[in-house]
Design brief:
This protein is of the alpha+beta class. The protein has 20 helices and 27 strands. Strand 23 (608-610) and strand 24 form a beta hairpin. Bound molecules: 5'-O-[(L-methionyl)-sulphamoyl]adenosine (MSP).
Length: 645
């Protein structure tokens, strides 16, 4: 019997079906698609789930605004998701709609299991609620602020006004799972990528978990609560269940399939929904006696004009417009190359155009084109490998193998932007090789060397084509076709490609240019003009050396009760000791947001007393577009006390 293939089950969030998908929705989906294709190239059996989140107040309101029933509104809207995914080559296996019957009954079964376990009880609940985010705001009410029943504190996620909701509700005993969750995080340090997100989750859970309200009486567009239809299931709870219901949970005819895929290998999620996936979901799965997904991949936000792009803020970039103007695969490349997964990134048309022109059309497209045209000029179609490679050829092959190793490493870490940057370094290297060998001269006086240059370039391009296939599948299939390589991933599993032995024969074929240069909407000069240089007050390097900036970890953080502004931080600077530092960021930060964060501090600021308390340093911040101070964290773990240079 053939050995069972390794499986890979990846999911995207289910997208709120309030409007057609935007660039942010595409971003999560694209990552999952690229990873699925990457795993296919490694011979795995994959299942790729995406879907739409179709219950809750937001959906009911959107439908009402459109003058339609929720069902009609959703049925009219969902094709726009399917269309976008099709245009962008998103190769999902299943698109779940949370209004699908099988999901509704399986989600109810899930709740019933928790009820049987004794992990659900009914009690009264009163709290601030953010309707657009469908979430209770647990932050403490600021005593100095005068909030009213329908004008609560702003939601920490979308900054909109919250309102008081008071109702009888069913609670899930989340608090019971606090220790088990903390143990799970310790035992599974790779549960969340990037790692710094796990620290945030651990600090949150360590501060104590409250039981979670999981039903609503005020929301009627939802799944009826089992045995109490006056309540609907809290939309987040049933939405999370999609990851199991879609593959057959609680469906008697699908048990084999369910156990084949579960637990998921990866949930791709944006940074705004980490808590739901890293705390609530694992706790509920523990309660239901199911395994916890192996990993969460958390990405940042795409911002437009430095603002979060979202339906609620109304600054949407439409992926369909982009695809028409620039091509879907060009946008796939841009998104993954331009925006580091662990950070927020700004979307800019200038960058889109620049990437297409410089990286795709010039570096890659031209390389293929020049090589094929030159071969054709000398009537060469079939390219046999040389019997013995020259030093230059061997160097190119080594450079290719180095690239493969680095690329694999970056992909394993989900650092797409680094993988692509590394691959482009190799493309540039192939361009240099091609140019320096002057094959147009060799064609006239050294046919053997000419053929070797063509062969070296073809071998390099084949590797480039296969490794870039997950990112730009159709374009790379065309590229490979032009080398005479038929792409079927079953035959191109990376392990079988014998990438180190350059002994392949290629059959060249001219194809239309892979990438057209876009017509520039934003010219380089205009971009420079947009940021006029202010009159600069320069400082001497000696002045800069006077300021000591060091990395420190905030160990504890307390609110100074009588102060409107101050928080008291206790910061660990490693060999440089621990210090108390006061900071005026109380209006924007809760202690929980700061504890365990590694930040940058001015270390040699003259100590002074503020509010009767000693402060020995200053935390660095930068204001965001809303004027909220953002602390400056470090990109990776750095020893405490390290001085910035
Ligand atoms: N319905 C919930 C998810 C439930 S999953 C069980 C939801 N939906 S959403 O449509 O608001 O967001 C879905 C995903 O899109 C999230 O991962 C979110 O981070 C991502 N994005 C939404 N806007 C985004 C950007 N502007 N940039 C990048 N991704 C963002 O939350």
């Amino acid at each position: 019997m053939a050995p069972k293939k390794q499986t890979f089950y990846v999911t995207t969030p289910v997208y709120y079906a309030t409007a057609k998908p935007h660039l942010g929705s595409l971003y999560s989906t694209l990552m999952a698609d690229v990873l699925v294709r990457w795993q296919k190239l490694h011979g795995k059996d994959v299942f790729f789930l995406t879907g739409t989140d179709e219950h809750g107040q937001k959906i009911a309101e959107a439908a009402q605004q459109a003058g339609k029933s929720p069902k009609k509104f959703l049925d009219d809207l969902i094709p726009s998701f399917k269309k976008a995914w099709q245009v962008y080559g998103i190769n999902y296996n299943h698109l779940i709609r949370t209004t699908d019957d099988y999901h509704i009954s399986a989600a109810q079964e899930f709740i019933k299991t928790l009820i049987k376990k004794g992990d659900i009880y009914k009690a009264a609940y009163k709290g601030w609620y953010c309707t657009p985010c469908e979430t209770f705001v647990t932050e403490k009410e600021d005593k100095k602020q005068q909030y009213t029943e329908d004008q609560g504190p702003p939601c920490p996620s979308c900054n909109r006004q919250t309102v008081i909701i008071s109702e009888d509700t069913y609670f899930f005993r989340l608090s019971k799972y606090q220790d088990a969750l903390l143990k799970f995080y310790t035992d599974n340090p790779n549960f969340i990528v990037p790692r710094e997100r796990l620290n945030e989750v651990i600090s949150f859970v360590s501060l104590g978990l409250k039981d979670l309200s999981i039903s609503r009486t005020t929301v009627t567009w939802g799944i009826p609560f089992p045995d109490d239809p006056s309540h609907t299931v809290y939309v987040w709870v049933e939405a999370l269940c999609n990851y199991i219901t879609a593959i057959g949970y609680a469906q008697s005819d699908k048990q084999k399939q369910f156990h084949y895929w579960w637990p998921a290998d990866l949930h791709v999620v944006g940074k705004d929904i980490v808590r739901f996936h890293a705390v609530y979901w694992p706790a509920m799965l523990m309660a239901a006696g199911l395994q916890i997904p192996k990993q969460l991949l958390v990405h940042g936000w795409i911002r437009v004009d430095k603002q979060k792009m979202s339906k609620s803020l109304g600054n949407i970039v439409d992926p369909m417009v982009l695809h028409e103007k620039y091509g879907a695969e060009q946008i796939r490349y841009y998104l993954l190359r331009q925006i580091p997964i662990n950070q927020d990134g700004n979307f800019s048309i200038y960058d889109v155009e620049q990437r297409i022109e410089a990286d795709l059309a010039n570096d890659l497209g031209n390389l293929l084109n020049r090589m094929v045209l030159l071969a054709q000029k000398y009537d060469v179609h079939e390219i046999q490998p040389p019997t013995i490679w020259s030093e230059q050829g061997l160097n190119l092959r080594d450079a290719c193998l180095d690239m493969i190793e680095d690329f694999n490493g970056h992909m394993t870490d989900y650092m797409f932007h680094l993988a692509l940057a590394r691959l482009w370094r190799f493309i540039k290297c192939v361009n240099v090789y091609f140019h320096e060998q002057e094959p147009w001269q060799l064609a006239k006086n050294n046919k053997e060397a000419f053929m070797e240059v063509l062969s070296g370039t073809c071998h390099s391009l084949q590797v480039i084509g296969v490794f870039l296939w997950p990112i730009m599948p159709q374009k790379m299939e065309q590229l490979l076709e032009s080398l005479g390589v038929t792409f079927e991933y079953e035959n191109n599993i990376i392990e079988n490609l014998e990438l180190g032995t350059w002994h392949k024969r290629f059959m060249l074929k001219k194809i239309p240019a892979l990438f057209e240069k876009p017509e520039r909407t934003v010219k380089m000069e205009e971009k420079t003009e947009q940021v006029p240089e202010k009159k600069m007050q320069y400082v001497d390097i000696k002045d800069l050396a006077k300021i000591q900036l060091r990395v420190g970890t905030i160990e504890t953080c307390e609110v100074i009760e009588d102060s409107e502004k101050l928080l008291k931080l206790f910061v660990d600077f490693g060999d440089h000791g621990k210090r108390q530092i006061l900071s005026g960021i109380k209006p924007w930060y809760q202690p929980i947001d700061l504890i365990s964060k590694q930040c940058i501090f001015v270390f040699n600021l003259k100590p002074r007393k503020i509010f009767g308390l000693q402060s020995e340093g200053m935390i660095f911040i930068a204001e965001d577009e809303r004027g909220k101070p953002q602390i400056i964290t470090v990109p990776t773990v750095i020893p405490n006390g390290t001085q910035l240079k």
